[in-house]
Amino acid sequence: MKILIIGGGGMIGRKLAGRLAADGKLGEREISELTLFDVVSPDAPGDSAFPVKLRTGDLSNVDEAKALVAEQPDVIFHLAAIVSGEAEEDFAKGYRINLDGTRHLLDAVCAINEYVPRVVFTSSIAVFGAPFPDAITDDFHTTPLTSYGTQKAIGELLLSDFTRRGMMDGIGIRLPTICVRPGSPNKAASGFFSNIIREPLAGAEAVLPVSDDVQHWHASPRSAVGFLLHAATIDGTIVGNRRNLTMPGIAVTVGEQIEALRTVAGDNVASRIRRVPDEKIMHMVSGWPRNFRADRATGLGFQADASFEQIIRAHVNDELGGNIG
Amino acid sequence: MKILIIGGGGMIGRKLAGRLAADGKLGEREISELTLFDVVSPDAPGDSAFPVKLRTGDLSNVDEAKALVAEQPDVIFHLAAIVSGEAEEDFAKGYRINLDGTRHLLDAVCAINEYVPRVVFTSSIAVFGAPFPDAITDDFHTTPLTSYGTQKAIGELLLSDFTRRGMMDGIGIRLPTICVRPGSPNKAASGFFSNIIREPLAGAEAVLPVSDDVQHWHASPRSAVGFLLHAATIDGTIVGNRRNLTMPGIAVTVGEQIEALRTVAGDNVASRIRRVPDEKIMHMVSGWPRNFRADRATGLGFQADASFEQIIRAHVNDELGGNIG
Q1: Nearest CB partner across the interface for A241, out of B129, B142, B157
Q2: Of the candidates A142, A164, A165, which has its C-beta nearest B142's C-beta?
Q3: What is the C-alpha to C-alpha distance for residues B161 and A154, in angstroms, rounded to an integer?
């Protein structure tokens, strides 16, 4: 089978590509070819039994989407997005990439007769906006309070409708905030949830802009890759018409994150977090989801991390070779 | 104040224009000018104290939207849409008018500096898709099962986001199915709910394609105009960030509709309904909402009809000059 990863140069895209290269197959089917597409040149994963093509381009260009699907990949992972902070700063760019780009992709798929690929779309818990119940259930409405969340919610609606009409076979997964996010900070406004774990573990100081009692919903990069693989192989008829699923995660407060860090890495590491309240970030975060009941996804076999401590230990193993700075 | 009605040639647009002409003002403010825009030439309402401009064009043309808002109307009613049946038949046309057209309008408003008009958008209960609870609450998710419903749900999301960012001041109202819809049937798949009342009252036979126990959510054209006027004048700060409101209505079964017709017009009229089950329509209708708890809108002062009998009597008065055929 042929696989296309749009956003193959991003953090999750690279990890997904690496996993596919290591596995050699997706579900029961051998992978014959993998294409990684991104706005900047993506890296090829390490050794793989199948050829890997690297492509660069702009998804908001309608011809780009057509070219990408022309070879009719069996599975398309659509991970590309302008992240929340940047989509809020640059209104036009967010809509151009996150909405128009997604629509171009779906239209391009739809334009090919008798081509019904599985399309896995990474949505986000940013489709939800406060006020919330204690735990957000699967039938709670999507009233985003960011342009990013709006664009993701629209992508979900398009995915469902194109799927219902038999033009593709889509599964949308609402990712929790990915934590611990490796590498350098991006423009996601939620970056501090990772920074306060990653930087102290690497021997550096991290800034915490919100109070310790802020609760949020997390999944490790490892879980996120697991969600993507499961979404790519799940039987769509079991999912039914409601194609967008809130992924399971771990609800923890910032205080609980820090305590987990202390348990895993000790007081010295935990003391590298500096509290610098930021009104603007606190205001944004106050509109974000805190906790979910992801019953549908859990029932469909999507698996969350066991605890926030496990999330930290996975980061130490996967990114730091087991070493704490 | 200047008012623009996009979709001013449609049934609701005409009734709204007539009401504005009769009132001479909207809320407390005198109307200085009314523009009616539609794809076919709209009719001017009767006597009005203000000038009425009639315009024809295609909202999916980006320049059309720019031209429409260039004169900076204070209130824009965006009622134009390809209806449910047609949007399902012609996928591309539905997206072009209902999604692209709406987006062009919002983008055109956003492009004018320091111009923040009230935009009243008619959404629909078609944004909801089965399965449903007994009554759909204000925080129930939007999982439409038609392309029309999808396009309306996307319009709602855009309206909220553009409003949140201060680019306009939008209110989206999810209209119940309008009943009794006067005039000749359009391509709305829900047309039979009106046909079975309107045609018998006019002395003609009507076909009922579903069973008597189908329950649905209705509002009279008179109520719909009331919703629009209230949405145009309500204080947006009280509405808050959740700008899309399910309008109150009357939940009745088809059997109850027929009994109300019998009460108002007698056995002879009610006997003009012929039952011709249609599997395709029954399947569509099975995915439609039946009943709501429109608490937010009711709390914000939107008023439903008192009963289905009252809906029929309003039709007899407003459309038939009090005469039953």
Answers
A1: B129
A2: A142
A3: 11
